[in-house]
Amino acid sequence: MTYKLIALDVDGTLLNDEHRLTEQTIQTIREVHEAGSHIVLCTGRAPASTVPILQELGLEGTMITHNGAVTVQADERGQALLHEFSFSLDDIQPMLNDVREKGIHFDVCTPFNMYIERLGEYEKAMYKKFLINPKLVTDVSELGMPIVKFTLFSQPEVLDLVEKDWSERKLYGDLRMIRSGELFIDVMSAEANKGNALKALAASWEIDAHEVMAIGNYYNDLEMMAFAGLGIAVDNSPEDVKQAADAVTASNNEEGVHHALVRYCL
Questions:
Q1: Nearest to residue 61, comparing CAs of 48, 72, 47?
Q2: What fold, for 89-188?
Q3: Angle made by CA atoms 201, 202, 203, in degrees to the nearest 5
Q4: Could you say which DSSP state residue 210 is in?
Q5: How far is CA 74 from the centre of its chain?
Q6: Phi/psi at 190 (nearest 5 deg)?
Q7: Which of 26, 111, 143, 262 has the highest count of CB atoms within 10 angstroms of its CB?
Q8: HEC string for 26-63
């Protein structure tokens, strides 16, 4: 089977736990790309922190970012917005009030920028790890522009309680709340997910779902894995994510993406 479009989650899938690419994985991805497949990074990251990964792979092209809320074309001329699922800051005001009261760190994102109201050393280290330079403002509610993602960052047990509380109270209203990692909760448009973004991109390139491969590791990857003709989970995924996949490859620390591409593409 020739897969014309290969969607790769980044953190926990393409990168190892040190947030690095291995040379073998880089070479394998380039080989698959040179054979004619579109390589699309499909990530919760913003465009600015995804482009360096694309450049390290020696590629340029389309990226699905912010967990499917934003699709961007990146090349030597810069970054161009192709599509976004946005919503109003008014839609998250009850949640903003709640996290401010509880002292939980948060940020809000437009397609190309991230805004925060405070920055401690713990948060600074996290943003540095993900190559993010957020803009510090007094009150994000006064930005006066649509946003594509509202993210909480805290310890797993804190977010477990938030997730339960907000679900019971439906505090997110018509928006969508997902756990994008143990330390993160994302609130986005109900239409925004990696699967919908990947489906739209494949259609624009006249590529059928059975010609798409997607590799991921977490719950925010389920929709793209379900859309793809072949959805693969890396071995470090939660058990129910692995059960939902068509196949399981080695972990992100064991070059799972490399092994999957060799097996199914080369």
A1: 72
A2: 3.30.1240
A3: 90
A4: G
A5: 16
A6: -60, -25
A7: 111
A8: HHHHHHHHHCCCEEEEECCCCHHHHHHHHHHCCCCEEE
- CATH among 2.170.130.30, 3.40.50.1000, 1.10.10.10, 3.40.50.450 for 5-84+192-264: 3.40.50.1000
Spatial separation of the C-alpha atoms in residues 130 and 133, rounded to whole Å: 9
Burial 249-264, CB ≥16 within 10 A → b, else e: bebbeebbbbbbbeeb
**49, 132 contact by CB (below 8 A):** yes
The amino acid occupying position 202 is A
Domain borders along the chain are 5-84+192-264, 89-188
Say how far apart CA 184 and CA 226 lie, in whole Å: 22
The model's pLDDT over 89-135, given as tens digits with 9 standing for 90+, comes to 999 999 999 999 999 999 999 999 999 999 999 999 999 988 899 99
**Model's pTM, two decimal places?**
0.90
In the chain, alpha helices (H): 23-34, 47-56, 93-102, 121-129, 156-169, 194-204, 222-227, 239-244, 256-264
Tell me how far apart the 2 most distant CA atoms of the chain are, in Å: 53
Give me 236's structure tokens: 């470090």
